Amino acid sequence: MGANGVKIYWEAGIMKRAAGALILLMAFLAVGCSMSTDPTEYDGTVASPLQVETFDFQYKKIVTELRRLNQMREEALNQLLNGESTKFDANAVFRYVKENAQDLLQQAKEMEAPGHLVKIKEVLVSSFAYYMEGLSDLREYLDKEKKALLEEADGNFQEATRLLDEAREKLEKAKKIAGLKDDKPW
Protein backbone atom coordinates (compact mmCIF):
# COMPACT_ATOMS: atom_id res chain seq x y z
CA MET A 1 0.00 0.00 0.00
CA GLY A 2 1.44 3.41 -1.00
CA ALA A 3 1.51 6.63 0.98
CA ASN A 4 -1.81 7.70 -0.52
CA GLY A 5 -3.42 4.38 0.44
CA VAL A 6 -2.21 4.72 4.03
CA LYS A 7 -3.50 8.31 4.18
CA ILE A 8 -6.95 7.32 2.84
CA TYR A 9 -7.12 4.32 5.21
CA TRP A 10 -6.09 6.55 8.15
CA GLU A 11 -8.65 9.26 7.26
CA ALA A 12 -11.38 6.62 6.88
CA GLY A 13 -10.53 5.32 10.36
CA ILE A 14 -10.83 8.82 11.82
CA MET A 15 -14.18 9.31 10.10
CA LYS A 16 -15.46 5.99 11.46
CA ARG A 17 -14.42 6.92 15.00
CA ALA A 18 -15.93 10.39 14.65
CA ALA A 19 -19.20 8.91 13.38
CA GLY A 20 -19.23 6.41 16.25
CA ALA A 21 -18.61 9.17 18.78
CA LEU A 22 -21.39 11.27 17.23
CA ILE A 23 -23.83 8.35 17.43
CA LEU A 24 -22.91 7.78 21.09
CA LEU A 25 -23.32 11.48 21.85
CA MET A 26 -26.75 11.56 20.17
CA ALA A 27 -27.83 8.44 22.08
CA PHE A 28 -26.63 9.97 25.35
CA LEU A 29 -28.49 13.22 24.63
CA ALA A 30 -31.64 11.31 23.68
CA VAL A 31 -31.52 9.36 26.94
CA GLY A 32 -30.75 12.53 28.91
CA CYS A 33 -33.64 14.43 27.31
CA SER A 34 -36.11 11.60 27.85
CA MET A 35 -35.09 11.35 31.51
CA SER A 36 -34.99 15.08 32.20
CA THR A 37 -38.79 15.24 32.46
CA ASP A 38 -38.82 12.67 35.24
CA PRO A 39 -39.95 14.05 38.62
CA THR A 40 -37.10 12.29 40.45
CA GLU A 41 -34.57 14.49 38.67
CA TYR A 42 -33.03 16.99 41.07
CA ASP A 43 -30.13 19.11 39.84
CA GLY A 44 -30.29 18.62 36.09
CA THR A 45 -28.20 15.44 36.09
CA VAL A 46 -29.27 11.84 36.21
CA ALA A 47 -27.28 9.23 38.10
CA SER A 48 -25.75 6.45 36.02
CA PRO A 49 -26.93 2.84 36.51
CA LEU A 50 -23.69 2.07 38.38
CA GLN A 51 -24.21 5.03 40.72
CA VAL A 52 -27.80 3.98 41.38
CA GLU A 53 -26.72 0.38 42.01
CA THR A 54 -23.98 1.49 44.44
CA PHE A 55 -26.38 3.83 46.22
CA ASP A 56 -29.01 1.07 46.41
CA PHE A 57 -26.47 -1.34 47.96
CA GLN A 58 -25.36 1.21 50.59
CA TYR A 59 -28.95 2.23 51.33
CA LYS A 60 -30.03 -1.37 51.93
CA LYS A 61 -27.02 -2.03 54.14
CA ILE A 62 -27.77 1.02 56.31
CA VAL A 63 -31.51 0.38 56.58
CA THR A 64 -31.03 -3.35 57.31
CA GLU A 65 -28.66 -2.48 60.17
CA LEU A 66 -31.04 0.21 61.42
CA ARG A 67 -33.86 -2.35 61.50
CA ARG A 68 -31.64 -4.73 63.50
CA LEU A 69 -30.89 -1.96 66.00
CA ASN A 70 -34.58 -1.07 66.21
CA GLN A 71 -35.44 -4.71 66.93
CA MET A 72 -32.88 -4.73 69.76
CA ARG A 73 -34.45 -1.54 71.11
CA GLU A 74 -37.95 -3.03 70.98
CA GLU A 75 -36.87 -6.24 72.73
CA ALA A 76 -35.10 -4.29 75.47
CA LEU A 77 -38.12 -2.03 75.93
CA ASN A 78 -40.50 -5.00 76.13
CA GLN A 79 -38.33 -6.66 78.76
CA LEU A 80 -38.23 -3.41 80.68
CA LEU A 81 -42.01 -2.93 80.52
CA ASN A 82 -42.56 -6.54 81.61
CA GLY A 83 -40.46 -5.98 84.71
CA GLU A 84 -37.53 -8.06 83.46
CA SER A 85 -35.02 -5.21 83.60
CA THR A 86 -32.98 -6.97 86.27
CA LYS A 87 -31.80 -9.54 83.67
CA PHE A 88 -29.91 -6.94 81.63
CA ASP A 89 -28.76 -3.34 81.65
CA ALA A 90 -31.40 -1.59 79.54
CA ASN A 91 -29.41 1.64 79.51
CA ALA A 92 -26.43 -0.23 78.02
CA VAL A 93 -28.65 -1.64 75.24
CA PHE A 94 -30.03 1.79 74.39
CA ARG A 95 -26.55 3.33 74.55
CA TYR A 96 -25.28 0.66 72.12
CA VAL A 97 -28.22 1.22 69.76
CA LYS A 98 -27.79 4.99 69.83
CA GLU A 99 -24.02 4.87 69.19
CA ASN A 100 -24.48 2.50 66.25
CA ALA A 101 -27.36 4.56 64.87
CA GLN A 102 -25.07 7.63 64.95
CA ASP A 103 -22.47 5.67 62.96
CA LEU A 104 -25.13 4.73 60.41
CA LEU A 105 -26.25 8.35 60.18
CA GLN A 106 -22.68 9.36 59.37
CA GLN A 107 -22.52 6.66 56.67
CA ALA A 108 -25.80 7.95 55.21
CA LYS A 109 -24.46 11.51 55.13
CA GLU A 110 -21.30 10.36 53.33
CA MET A 111 -23.12 8.39 50.61
CA GLU A 112 -22.44 9.63 47.08
CA ALA A 113 -25.80 10.78 45.72
CA PRO A 114 -25.59 12.44 42.29
CA GLY A 115 -28.57 13.88 40.48
CA HIS A 116 -31.97 12.61 41.53
CA LEU A 117 -30.48 10.42 44.28
CA VAL A 118 -29.90 13.56 46.37
CA LYS A 119 -33.58 13.70 47.38
CA ILE A 120 -33.53 10.04 48.45
CA LYS A 121 -30.43 10.67 50.54
CA GLU A 122 -32.12 13.70 52.15
CA VAL A 123 -35.14 11.58 53.12
CA LEU A 124 -32.88 8.84 54.53
CA VAL A 125 -30.89 11.34 56.61
CA SER A 126 -34.04 13.09 57.88
CA SER A 127 -35.49 9.74 58.97
CA PHE A 128 -32.49 9.39 61.29
CA ALA A 129 -33.40 12.67 63.00
CA TYR A 130 -36.70 11.14 64.13
CA TYR A 131 -35.00 7.88 65.05
CA MET A 132 -32.35 9.59 67.19
CA GLU A 133 -34.97 11.76 68.88
CA GLY A 134 -36.97 8.64 69.67
CA LEU A 135 -33.89 7.06 71.24
CA SER A 136 -33.33 10.14 73.39
CA ASP A 137 -36.92 10.02 74.58
CA LEU A 138 -36.59 6.34 75.46
CA ARG A 139 -33.44 6.98 77.47
CA GLU A 140 -35.38 9.60 79.45
CA TYR A 141 -38.29 7.19 79.80
CA LEU A 142 -35.95 4.63 81.33
CA ASP A 143 -34.82 7.18 83.88
CA LYS A 144 -38.12 8.93 84.63
CA GLU A 145 -40.70 6.31 83.59
CA LYS A 146 -42.97 8.82 81.90
CA LYS A 147 -45.57 7.28 79.62
CA ALA A 148 -45.91 10.48 77.56
CA LEU A 149 -42.26 10.22 76.56
CA LEU A 150 -42.75 6.64 75.41
CA GLU A 151 -45.73 7.65 73.26
CA GLU A 152 -43.71 10.52 71.78
CA ALA A 153 -40.85 8.14 71.03
CA ASP A 154 -43.22 5.71 69.31
CA GLY A 155 -44.48 8.59 67.17
CA ASN A 156 -40.90 9.44 66.21
CA PHE A 157 -40.16 5.84 65.21
CA GLN A 158 -43.36 5.69 63.14
CA GLU A 159 -42.35 8.89 61.32
CA ALA A 160 -38.85 7.49 60.73
CA THR A 161 -40.38 4.32 59.26
CA ARG A 162 -42.69 6.38 57.02
CA LEU A 163 -39.74 8.38 55.71
CA LEU A 164 -37.70 5.23 55.07
CA ASP A 165 -40.62 3.76 53.09
CA GLU A 166 -40.85 6.98 51.08
CA ALA A 167 -37.11 6.87 50.35
CA ARG A 168 -37.36 3.22 49.30
CA GLU A 169 -40.16 4.04 46.83
CA LYS A 170 -38.08 6.83 45.30
CA LEU A 171 -35.07 4.53 45.11
CA GLU A 172 -37.08 1.83 43.32
CA LYS A 173 -38.18 4.48 40.80
CA ALA A 174 -34.56 5.61 40.34
CA LYS A 175 -33.56 1.98 39.70
CA LYS A 176 -36.24 1.64 37.01
CA ILE A 177 -35.06 4.87 35.36
CA ALA A 178 -31.50 3.52 35.37
CA GLY A 179 -32.72 0.29 33.76
CA LEU A 180 -31.84 -1.89 36.74
CA LYS A 181 -33.88 -5.01 37.45
CA ASP A 182 -36.05 -5.20 40.54
CA ASP A 183 -34.50 -7.47 43.10
CA LYS A 184 -36.22 -9.47 45.80
CA PRO A 185 -37.96 -7.49 48.55
CA TRP A 186 -35.75 -6.81 51.53
Could you please describe the fold and organization of this structure?
It comes from Calderihabitans maritimus. Keywords: Coiled coil. This is Lipoprotein. The structure is a single chain. This protein is mostly helical and 186 residues long. It folds into two domains: 35 residues; 129 residues, no CATH class. Helix content is 78%, strand content 0%. About 21% of the residues have low confidence.
Structural class: mainly alpha
Mean pLDDT: 67
The number of distinct β-strands equals 0
Give the CA-based shape. Answer: elongated
Helix content: over 70%
First-residue to last-residue Cα separation: 63 Å
| Rounded radius of gyration (Å) | 25 Å
Beta-strand portion reads under 5%
Low-confidence stretches: 4-42
The number of helical segments is: 5
**How many distinct domains?**
2
Largest sheet, described in full? none
Helix and strand sequence: HHHHH
Organism: Calderihabitans maritimus
Keywords: Coiled coil
Protein name: Lipoprotein
Coiled coil: 150-177
